[in-house]
Amino acid sequence: MEMNKVIISGHLGQNPETTPKGPTRFSIAVNERWGSGADRNERVNWFQVVAWNSVAKAAEKYLSKGSHILLEGSLRLNEWENDDGKHSRVEIVASNIIFLDKKDSGESTSDPEKG
């Protein structure tokens, strides 16, 4: 059995950006903390997110920089080449977003095409 599923909770790093015929893209910051007292450590992990269809529309309409969300999706390796050479990055393809800000009262949206 193979599985490709990611669930993270964090805050948007910028407003979602949508291209005319492409996906909606944004980044999400997830804080990681470990240790206690004087040994307490913290790190911020940044993840790039791609959303399509109804999830993209909801992200563009309701989310903005700083929005707190729970995100469900899958990992995808995006590879491209330009004048600077070959590039790659792992992105999260969003299939469901739950809005965690108090004003959004836990509403969620999912992409029926993603299942």
Structure description:
By secondary structure, the protein is mainly β. The protein has a single domain, classed as Nucleic acid-binding proteins (OB fold (Dihydrolipoamide Acetyltransferase, E2P), Beta Barrel), CATH 2.40.50. It is built from 1 helix and 7 strands. It is globular and about 50 Å long. The relative contact order is 0.23.
Radius of gyration: 16 Å
The percentage of residues in β strands lies in over 45%
CATH superfamily: Nucleic acid-binding proteins
Individual helix count: 1
Secondary structure class reads mainly beta
Based on the structure given, which CATH architecture is correct? Beta Barrel
Contiguous uncertain segments of 5+ residues: none
Q: Could you estimate the helical fraction of the residues in percent?
A: under 10%
Q: Sum up the overall morphology in one term.
A: globular
Which fold does the CATH topology refer to?
OB fold (Dihydrolipoamide Acetyltransferase, E2P)
Number of DSSP strand runs: 7
Order of helices and strands: EEEEHEEE
Could you give the distance between the termini? 18 Å
Q: Quick check: average pLDDT? A: 90
Strand order of the largest sheet: 1-3-4-6-5
Q: Which CATH C-level class is it? A: Mainly Beta
What characterizes the major β-sheet?
5 strands, mixed, barrel
Supply the number of structural domains: 1
Describe the structure using short key phrases.
115 residues; mainly beta; OB fold (Dihydrolipoamide Acetyltransferase, E2P); 5-stranded mixed barrel; 7 strands; 9% helix
